[in-house]
Design a protein that fits this description.
By secondary structure, the chain is mainly beta. The chain has one domain: Tachylectin-2, Chain A. About 10% of the residues lie in helices and about 35% in strands. A 4-stranded antiparallel β-sheet has the order 1-2-3-4, with no helix packed on it. β10 and β11 form a beta hairpin. The longest helix has about 35 residues. The protein is globular, with a radius of gyration of 25 Å. The termini are far apart.
Length: about 325
């Protein structure tokens, strides 16, 4: 009888231990799952303030982004200076290649005033196109051009695009499948024009962009997906877009991409089968209106080509394995 009781006690104890071990494993799995879900990859650059990310996939198979730079003590945008280059192969770990162009290297321009850049690979060289002030005023901006033999720079200024002087705010350069390169720019009134191959002259008279709405503020951007042209921009209250069949438009207004981020200056790339949305945001990492941080989210299209709305997340994107 005593032997039966002892055996029963042993079985009960063994089952209890197994249950406790299983519960422990389940809790550990839950903790791991929560830990993975809460991993915060945004902002992707934290050691300095970066904004206006211009993202590209170059011939070396890396994702490159060129950013403007906010000063830590900034109280306006006039002190922005020194464009920066970063590269990555996994979308989470970014190599800082340092400063690639500074206002002190631009003989025709003022100190500071290095606003949102754009980039292009053409003529077997890498180019930065950027807005910069001649005398220190938003009313005398030019669209400067700088060139480098390598994506990490440094870039050398070669002048500005002739034919349009005045308020050059946030240019975007886009090369179509036929090799033709277009420039998009403007503040409050968006414009565009075909560029000559030297990238220093317009090949035609600038045109106003018809995009089916009247909420454009700044930060024109153009990309192409499945034969459609996507014209997007910052409306002052987030990013919005329109679609068309030509780089000239007209474009059909589609609505918001990320309407909840007031400061939206974005770019879009496809890398290893996934589309990514680059933008800057002031809300994390001790940021502010004039101390912004570069972030990345996944971007998805519907079957009809429409872009699914994006919300900023601290999780951002996960590391590509």
């Amino acid at each position: 009888m005593k032997f039966k009781i002892s055996l029963l006690f042993f079985v009960i104890t063994l089952v209890s231990c197994k249950n406790q071990k299983n519960q422990t494993k389940e809790k550990q799995a839950e903790k791991l799952e929560v830990s993975v879900k809460k991993q915060e990859n945004n902002p992707v650059i934290r050691h300095i303030r970066t904004a206006d990310p211009s993202a590209h996939v170059w011939e070396d198979g890396k994702v490159w982004m060129y950013t403007s730079r906010d000063a830590e003590d900034a109280v306006n945008y006039n002190s922005m200076d020194g464009y920066r280059a970063f590269s990555s192969t996994d979308m989470v770990n970014w190599t800082d290649h340092g400063e690639v162009l500074h206002s002190k290297n631009i003989p025709w321009g003022a100190k500071g005033w290095m606003w949102a850049p754009t980039a292009i690979y053409k003529n077997n060289k890498y180019y930065l196109l950027y807005p910069h002030s001649v005398k220190g005023s938003k009313d005398d901006m030019r669209c400067g051009v700088a060139v480098s033999d390598v994506p990490q720079g440094p870039f050398k200024d070669i002048g500005w695009i002739k034919g349009v002087e005045g308020q050059w705010l946030d240019p975007c350069v886009f090369t179509d499948d036929d090799g033709k390169t277009y420039l998009y720019w403007g503040v409050r009134e968006p414009k565009m024009a075909l560029l000559k191959d030297n990238l220093l002259e317009l090949a035609e008279t600038p045109r106003s962009i018809v995009y089916g709405a009247k909420n454009f503020f700044e930060a024109s951007y153009m990309h192409k997906y499945n034969g459609k042209y996507y014209y997007s921009y910052n409306a002052g209250l987030g990013g919005f877009y329109a679609m068309g069949d030509s780089p000239y438009g007209p474009f059909e207004y589609k609505g918001a991409i990320n309407p909840k981020q007031r400061q939206d200056h974005h770019s879009i790339v496809e890398y290893k089968g996934q589309h990514y949305f680059f933008y800057h945001w002031q809300g994390w990492n001790g940021g502010s209106k004039f101390r912004r941080n570069t972030c990345i989210e996944y971007l998805y299209y519907n079957e009809d080509g429409a872009i699914q709305e994006i919300n900023a997340t601290k999780e951002g994107v996960q590391k590509i394995k």
